[in-house]
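Narrative of activities, Objective 1.

The group set out to show that a structural description can be obtained from nothing but a protein's sequence at a throughput compatible with the screening campaign. Below is one input-output pair from the validation batch, recorded exactly as produced.
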Amino acid sequence: MFSLTIPRKRLQTWLKISVTLILVILALMSLRTGGISAQDLPAIIGRIEGDDLEVVTKTITGMETNAAPTVVASGSDVTLRSGHALLWLDAGGEISICGPAHFKLVKSAGAMTLALDYGRVHPSLDSTETFTIYTPTIIVTPISISGGPRDTTVGLQESGAMCIYTARGAMRVEQQFSDQSLIVPQGGSAGLVGGQIESLRGDVISCSCD
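Output recorded for this entry:
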């Protein structure tokens, strides 16, 4: 009868080598995953909090749906069924949202676009980054005055009626399918129906998202 014995010193050496190899493999896998995430995931726009909120984002693995609090990336589809939500922007400033609301955010080359289907949004912007709100018929662009902050509210009902209010800065309002445009001055408000200007002094209180 034979017995096979391995010297303790050699066994310890083998164990150290095995553990080292395992750690190296895990480290390489971690670096590979981190590189893919950094390279392929959409650019993060900010972080959102709110009740009854859903954020849908396309990632490398498919469509990802999250409830708040969560991050909002370029291309994220945001639905606020009721109540309020607040989006803190990485570029500076914030966007208050009054539900029900539905919109998509896209960021590209230092410019941000908010495609609003319905609801009220109140962007308070500290940065100089270009910010544009698109609706099915109207393009709205907050304008800084002397490099100051931009604080505006845009409301769009599912019926198509719109309200606009500029607390700080001005607002350029353009029709998507014509060359018509106007500037709403700081402190001014406007009401639109069917993409047409109805009044330059709309109901500021009903347009509020505070």
